[in-house]
Amino acid sequence: MTDAPSYGFDTLQVHAGARPDPATGARQTPIYQTTAYVFRDADHAAALFNLQEVGYIYSRLTNPTVAVLQERIATLEGGVGAVCCSSGHAAQIMALFAIMAPGRNVVASTRLYGGTVTQFSQTIKRFGWSAKFVDFDDLDAVKAAIDDDTRAVFCESIANPGGYITDLDAISAISDAAGLPLIVDNTSATPYLCRPIEHGATLVVHSTTKYLTGNGTVTGGAIVDSGKFDWSATDKFPALSAPEPAYHGLKFHETFGPLAFTFHGIAIALRDLGMTMNPQAAHYTLMGIETLSLRMERHVQNAMTVAGWLETHPAVEAVTYAGLPSSPYNHRVAQICPKGAGGLFTVALKGGYDACVKFVDSLDLFSHVANLGDTRSLVIHSASTTHRQLSEAQQVAAGAGPNVVRISIGIENAEDLIADLDQALSKASA
Ligand SMILES: *Cc1c(COP(=O)(O)O)cnc(C)c1O
């Protein structure tokens, strides 16, 4: 497809980044199952290695199948470029890698995927980085948490597991005023429901494992660059603004302008961290993205129906779905994700921890798995699984207390989902 920014989302999710294969005319994007690419001659090889010419060298850095996916995701998010990698967690490390340094910190929302809380509160310390967790509904607390060593602000658009909606406009006003990049994890919303760059995000990260692939087949991640951040405005981001010794003193921002982060992600981060997406995974995700809008519409429609039904059930204490008028986040739907609040929410049961365990064990159609964003409906009892490593206070702050079950609503018939939930709730409260 040639550049045609006027195409609508449904068209772009099928076509962006792809063109008939120049060698064979193959209409579907081929899986370029190759490690390396033949150089035209020694000069061509040298130019590629010097970043003077863009092309394929080795599949740890770039691969034509992965490149189509990168362009497709960047287009759907409204960014200038994207780097795909091996998982959502890899995408988060890759996003921070160009920005952070030993002694620096990221100010992060308390409402995050459990694995991200663990990654940020424990593992990144090994790099000398740290995270400060703040309630992102308390804007003064976000401002107060930013100090001279802060290099990024991080949140989820629709936050896992509760489906809370972050006021991205208010948060980006704070990160802008502090001269810091805002990184938004848009996994739960997808670009169909929310486009964080339009609300001021600098970088958008994804676990493509979830809705973008959509059927629970492969893990993957992506970092989309808005191209809007001035990495050279201060000396806070030397990886992007200062001379890079590994490329003869090249300055990424000066050389590549709005594509600085994307080129750094490929030429430094993928080259040296090696968290590469393989072409098979890119193929599955490209297949999934073709139907993203159709699936998300059904996920939202089913989630509205099921969440509304659950809310009135006598065994249920509360439902967090932001699409419900009872949600304190309902007013943000129109502002942040106008096509709907997604397919993810939590339900708190009056019977507490024991009722939750019985409930998940009694479901037939819903699967108890550590995943979300599948065509199949899924549940997980976060407190005994994904959020197990957290303290009870952290669990509650993350919206994953002991009496809470997370539900990822699939694209099945809503009445079948309700019937399954109904029988399991009866058993759980017996
Ligand atoms: C799953 C998930 C991640 C981590 O992604 P992986 O592909 O499992 O590494 C990060 N953020 C959110 C919101 C997720 O749902």
Task: Report a brief summary of the structure.
With 430 residues, the chain is of the alpha/beta class.
The poorly predicted ranges are none
The biggest beta sheet is recorded as: 7 strands, mixed
Radius of gyration from the CA trace? 22 Å
**CATH architecture field of the largest domain:** 3-Layer(aba) Sandwich
Helices and strands: which structural class?
alpha/beta
Helical fraction: 25-40%
Order of strands, main sheet, comes to: 1-9-8-7-4-2-3
Q: What is the CATH C level class of the largest domain, in words?
A: Alpha Beta
Q: Average the pLDDT over all residues and give the rounded result.
A: 95
Taking the alpha carbons of the first and last residues, their distance comes to 58 Å
The molecules bound to the chains, other than polymers, are: pyridoxal-5'-phosphate
For CATH, the homologous superfamily of the largest domain is named as Type I PLP-dependent aspartate aminotransferase-like (Major domain)
Number of strands: 14
Characterization of this structure:
With 430 residues, this protein is an alpha/beta fold. The chain has two domains: 8-99 and 181-288, Aspartate Aminotransferase, domain 2; 292-428, Aspartate Aminotransferase, domain 1, CATH 3.90.1150. It has 17 helices and 14 strands. The chain has helices spanning 9-15, 42-49, 64-77, 88-97, 114-121, 139-145, 168-177, 190-193, 238-241, 252-256, 260-273, 279-289, 292-311, 333-336, 352-362, 392-397, 414-429; strands at 81-85, 105-109, 130-134, 150-156, 158-159, 164-165, 182-185, 203-207, 221-225, 316-319, 344-349, 367-368, 378-380, 404-408. The strands form three sheets. The chain has a seven-stranded mixed β-sheet with strand order 1-9-8-7-4-2-3, with helices on both faces. Strands 10-11-14-13-12 form a five-stranded mixed β-sheet. Helix 13 (292-311) runs parallel beside helix 17 (414-429). The mean pLDDT is 95. Bound molecules: pyridoxal-5'-phosphate. Pyridoxal-5'-phosphate binds next to helix 4 and helix 5.
